[in-house]
Amino acid sequence: MQLTIDTQTDTYEQAIAAVQAAYGLNPVAVAGSWPDAPVAVPRPGPEGLSGEDLGQGWTERMLFDTVAAVVPGARAVLRRLVEVGGTASYEEVQDHFALHPETPIDRTRIGGTLTSVRAVRRRVGPDNRSNLLERDDRRRIYWIEPALLEGLNRAFDLADARPDLLRQEPTDS
Description:
three-stranded antiparallel sheet; mainly alpha; 3 strands
């Protein structure tokens, strides 16, 4: 017998019940004999995010879809901008990531890393051409509209709770 469990859609309890049934066990009897069984806690997902316009056509769901789809380096830069209130100079971003312990990005590659945000924005952002991440080359700053910061915070909270929903770097194998 072959058993397939989809960890994205099946609950833990459904998976255990399927395995028990496959081995001829009565799942109800087994669960009754395990008095301290953990209570099923629903996993958060993007379906719980708001579809309301936060500003410039962006919704919480669009923000999460963007966070989930960009390359990990771009995700880290977006998170950093949210942490510092939405605005940082090019130099601040470069300095922060030059020696970052988890996501080091060479100073000369920050701009290239952030092209992922623009590419994903075309696919999942609003139709009005508004950008999530803005650049001012004259003043040498990156910024995110203040109206989007709280939605991005919620998107990053979900990303932390469900890293399985995020794009990962390809593994060398």
